[in-house]
Sequence to fold (121 residues):
Amino acid sequence: MANKRYTTGGIVRTFKAVHRYAQMSARKIRPYADLVRGEFADVALEILSCYPARGAKLVRQAIYNAVKNAEDRSASGRTTLLEVLDIRVDGGPVSKRFRPKSRGASSVYFKRTSHITVVVG
Fold:
């Protein structure tokens, strides 16, 4: 299949979905985003469905939402040639938590969040 983009009058239409405050660190999600960057959306969804990891599930859901946004907002409803143009995983806010240690001490650990942005077109 040729690498064609969905166009309307020569202008590439892009559709976006953002998953904010995902309860997982960006470092754990980025490898799955790198797997599907530049792929067609339906191929990307199939690739990610093979991975049982939670990061893959979060990326798959964001791509699925971007495709559904394209179906809702496009006039013709043709979404078969959608390509994952851009996918970013950025760090979100970090919460500090404390864990008790021996002899009355405590240590800090961080609950990290991330923002997943997917652009298809």
